[in-house]
Design a protein that fits this description.
Blueprint: E1 5-9, H1 13-23, E2 28-34, E3 48-54, E4 57-63, E5 75-80, H2 83-94, E6 98-99, E7 104-106, E8 112-117, H3 118-124, H4 129-140, H5 147-155
Parallel strand pairs: 1-4, 5-8
Antiparallel strand pairs: 2-3, 3-4, 6-7, 7-8
Helix pairs in contact: 4-5
C-alpha cells in the first residue's frame, strides 16, 4: 500500500515542484505527464500532473486551473537539524509568500508550511511541565523559529 498527498495547483505547478524538490534533501520528481483526454478541467493535454517525493513522503501535483485554494487544513512540516538549515528553507519558501507565527508560512502558491527545529519537539517532550511552558511561551512570541532562544527558555534564562 502506498499513501500519497495530492496538491492541486491553479498554475505554475512545475515551478512549485521544482522549488520544493530542490530544497529538501533526498527529493525528486518521479514522473511528469499530461492528461491526454478532454476532462472537466480542460482539453486533452492542458492538465498536467507530476509525482514527486519530498524526503521520504510521496506527493502528486496537478495543474488544472482554479478549484479550492490551499488552506491550513493541509500543511507540510519540515523538521530541521540546524538553524542554518531552518533559515535556508524559511528564506526560500517565504519568498513571494507570507510569514505567520510559530514557524508557519505560506509559500507564493499559498501552500502552508511549518519550518521547525527538531530540537523543539525534544524540548516540548521534557518531563518538566515548567520547561514545556517556558518553551511554548517563547515559541508563541516567534515568527521564524530560532533554536537558541528556545533552548534558553528551557533552561529558564
Amino acid at each position: 500500500m502506498k499513501v500519497t498527498q495530492h496538491l492541486w495547483f491553479e498554475k505554475d505547478m512545475a515551478a512549485a515542484v521544482s522549488l520544493y524538490t530542490s530544497l529538501i534533501p533526498g527529493s525528486k520528481v518521479v514522473r511528469s505527464s499530461a492528461v491526454m483526454a478532454d476532462n472537466p478541467s480542460g482539453p486533452a493535454g492542458s492538465v498536467r500532473m507530476m509525482s514527486f517525493t519530498l524526503g521520504d513522503q510521496n506527493y502528486m501535483a496537478i495543474e488544472a486551473g482554479p478549484l479550492d485554494p490551499f488552506n491550513h487544513a493541509f500543511s507540510i512540516m519540515v523538521e530541521c537539524d540546524t538553524q542554518a538549515e531552518l533559515d535556508r528553507l524559511w528564506d526560500a519558501l517565504k519568498a513571494g509568500g507570507a510569514v505567520e507565527q510559530c514557524g508557519w508560512l505560506r509559500d507564493r502558491w499559498g501552500l502552508s508550511w511549518q519550518i521547525a527545529p527538531r530540537r523543539l519537539g525534544e524540548l516540548m517532550s521534557d518531563p518538566d511541565p515548567q520547561v514545556v511552558r517556558r518553551v511554548t511561551e517563547q515559541m508563541m512570541r516567534m515568527v521564524k523559529l530560532d533554536i537558541a532562544p528556545l533552548e534558553a527558555a528551557a533552561k529558564g534564562s
